[in-house]
Amino acid sequence: MKQKEPMLFINGWRFLTIGFLIHLWIIGESTNGSFILILLLLIVTSLRWRFALPIWFVLVDVFICFLFTPHTNISYYALALPIFELALKGKWLLSLLIFISLFFAQAASSLLFWFYLQTFFFGVFSFISLKNQVVYRQEADEQRKARYELERMKIDLLEANQSASHQAKLMERNRIASELHDHLGHDLTGASLALQAYEYIQDSREAEKLLQEVKNRLKRSTKNLRDTVHNMTPTTWMGIESLENIAHYFQQLDINLQKSGDMQAVSAHQWGLLEACLKEALTNVARHSNATIVEVDLQVTESIVRLLIQDNGSVEKNSHTGSGLRSLQIRSRSMGGSLSINRKNGFLLVCVIPLEKGG
Amino acid sequence: MTIFRFALKRVFGNTTNLIFLTIFPIACIFLPKGEGWPFLPYGYQYFGILILFIGIRLATIILEDRGKGVVKRLAVAPVSHFQYLSQNLLAYSVILILQCAIVVYGGILFGQELYQPSRLFLLFVSFCFASLAIALAWISFYRRKDTSFLLYMSLIFLIVVLGGLIIPIEIFPDLLKRIAVIFPTYWLAEGLNWIVFGENILDFLLINSVLWLYTIVCIIIGSTRKIY
């Protein structure tokens, strides 16, 4: 609707001019026959309103006016219409040419001059505003296109991130498997073989030696197992621990964290999103709200993980969704989930992500 | 011409419409002659008002189509808006022209003094088209049938009075006499006067051409396709 605005005023001017001509006819002394001039111009004007007529159609206006010049003075005033149309198309010199008719008008040619002049000015103004409109629209289109591209790129990146984390998980499994095979496998197999041999050995001294060997192997593998597990245990917080950690170290607010379900079912990149949600929500609460207590509830079921964050604040200052929350929404959508926000009774954030089957 | 036939059937399928479209014109034939003014019998002076009413009554069918989404469905059908509009209008004008014929030639049979019946018929036909076009332009501004109909009724009353169809224009003040020219009803009244007193055929042509110009203007304005 907004894009039609200049055209609305241009058409408004055209029909107002027809109204002006009718007024002139009523107060004047013209015959009934000259009323046809106004009707003809009304037809041309309504054609212009309905269709985009070519510039040469102005000739029709001029011709109609010219036809009626011997009969009525109104036709001189009606020449304002072609002046306006020419100025509207940027043919300013041609429209000034019609000013020549001033020399032929018998009465009130000075008034007519000012009428023409302001018509000309409005025509030029309309021309410029229509031109500007085209430029603005182009600019807006380009910007919109750029924004869409950015958003698409963002989603692509998030998907790439997800697949990279999946790859990393597989590689890590592989590494654990080979580590267990290399360090534990040999010793345990050796110990098992030695124990089988132990049953058949008659010589007690020989058996004593073998048993000692088995003990040593088991001791070594136990140590190896401990070392491997120790080496593999990450030093950063992960999973639910990281959420607990965030809640624990957030001093300003009283945070009540509850959890239920099997936390192992949630994969690493999903933890990353949940963590980001919690951080963002808590930061927002601390910055914009007067809340004192925040309830955090994490539920993991067989198919979904649901994070609910609710505060007891009452301020509705920041009613639009900020860029942080928006980007979280996009991230959760890229994982096939959703993130919704409600500000009715305090701030409520609910993030639902579907779990991957057979992780 | 499927749309044309359907439009005709639709108009005559409704009993109220049927009565409205046949009884009133026939009643016009039997109205008596006035004393002094109007110069033609009352039925013929007031037939213009009836044409205006019938025009809006028929045109609101198009408005009804718009409201029911028929226009939207037509937009995806292999029927152009032009075909839809032209065949509908053709059907409506056929109905109006038939009524004019009934009124004028029925009047001759009944024995009314009509001076120049065939020219009177021509004048009524011209006015029929103008009335239909004005109604079409009028409904293009509205969404609701009832609102447009009610407002048009008051408009008809206004232009009929100011145009000099009910009250002779001679008793108006000068300014109103000039303003009256804007209304198509003024030209109908002029035409009716010409039928009685007219001599110069050019005057009659002027009157008819003005009515046709009104028709063209209103068709241009009213033929926009509006899809809600």
UniProtKB/TrEMBL annotation, chain A:
Keywords: ATP-binding, Coiled coil, Kinase, Membrane, Nucleotide-binding, Phosphoprotein, Transferase, Transmembrane, Transmembrane helix, Two-component regulatory system. Residues 204-231 form a coiled coil. GO terms for cellular component: membrane. Gene3D superfamilies: 1.20.5.1930, Histidine kinase-like ATPase, C-terminal domain. It is an enzyme of class 2 (transferase). One of its GO terms (molecular function) is phosphorelay sensor kinase activity. It catalyses: ATP + protein L-histidine = ADP + protein N-phospho-L-histidine. Signal peptide: none annotated. Pfam families: HisKA_3. Residues 172-235 form the Signal transduction histidine kinase subgroup 3 dimerisation and phosphoacceptor domain. Its EC number is 2.7.13.3. The chain crosses the membrane at residues 56-80, 92-117. InterPro entries: HATPase_C_sf, Sensor_HK_TwoCompSys, Sig_transdc_His_kin_sub3_dim/P. PANTHER family: NITRATE/NITRITE SENSOR PROTEIN NARX-RELATED, NITRATE_NITRITE SENSOR PROTEIN NARQ. This is histidine kinase.
TrEMBL record, chain B:
Residues 44-222 form the ABC-2 type transporter transmembrane domain. The chain crosses the membrane at residues 12-32, 44-63, 89-108, 120-142, 149-169, 201-222. This is ABC transporter permease. Coiled coil: none annotated. Pfam families: ABC2_membrane_3. It is a multi-pass membrane protein. GO terms for cellular component: membrane. The lineage of its organism: Bacteria, Bacillati, Bacillota, Bacilli, Bacillales. It is found in: Membrane. Its main location: membrane. GO terms for molecular function: ABC-type transporter activity. Keywords: Membrane, Transmembrane, Transmembrane helix.
